[in-house]
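Thread: quick sanity check before group meeting

JM: Hey all, I'm pulling together slides for Thursday and realized we never actually wrote out the predicted structure for the chain we discussed last week. Dropping the sequence here so it's in one place. If anyone has concerns about the input, flag it before I start.
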Amino acid sequence: MFAENIFRPLPVSSYVYEGEENSEMTWEFQQTNAVYNAFNAFLWIKCFESAKASEFIDKRFVNALVQRLDSCLDAERSMVKELMTTMFCVTRYLREDLLNAIVDMLTDFGYGFIKEFKGIDVLLCLLRDFIECALVPENVLTKVLPVLIKHTSLCNYQDAIHECLESAVKSHTALATHCMDCVLKNWPANGDSKVDITLLASLFCLYECCEPEQWSSVQSRMIHQLSRLVRSKNAMLCLQAEKFIGRIIVDGRVPRLGTSVGKLADSLLDVYNNHWSLDCVTVACDHLKRLLKFRFLDMRQTSVTTEALGEVRQQKMFDELVTKKNIGLVKSRPKIPKVSVVIS
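JM (edit): ok, ran it. Output follows.
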């Protein structure tokens, strides 16, 4: 009954733009909702026997159920998620098939074999649950997580991906450096700030789960990438990179008196001297002071940095901002018409 009512090709009218629904699909779900609820209740009854059910509820059943997550209705996607969670709890023999269906769909989407799928957020939530139950082997995580991290259109699911990463690294610590290495090697060169911000946030999430001995294998490349990103004229990207730099300085994970820290100091000096954003300049100044305080810089860099910080650029920028604002107020002030007074 469930398969005949639910597993059928979605009508053409179901393929709508993101966030849109149509009356035909809404009416259809009102009829099938009862079927979903009945099947969910059937799985929970005490006399349910997995051995007998396995003849009908199998891998093909699971794959067909995952396809229903592409429905344009939030209510139907939520119902499918609830049903898959029930199957995870009740039909233990299906756990591997459930996991494979979720991973295959996410991997196909990550590689671009599937251009659009409306249930990506649900799949990520289910994958996180599998990871937290320690049911996902490391080789499967290695297959799916790097693809998801570097996928440029997954910024809308950034929080869900980070939850998966955090759960995965707790169980498999080697995944942190593997994923960081994959992102750094495949970083797009088109200079899209939105993509850079998304990838940088993923790297920061991985860094927080990374052990000190693992950090050493990616330290040089990571600092090189941060030195490049912090020079961005996009204030949000610059501040995101500065946040990352501040964290590794505080954690003492910046190499002393080396080429890497030299590049980092040069980039921060460039931000301090030339960036248009007062916030970015202020944070760069704080980081440079920390580098001086903890003696990360050599004699030449120490001299150059000390001389640059002596100019206090933030105050000059603030004064210029106040001056421009005052000039704008003067220009926008309405002129008072002259009144001629005639004395007779």
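AS: nice. The longest helix spans residues 23-44. The chain is about 70% helix and 0% strand.
JM: adding both to the slides.
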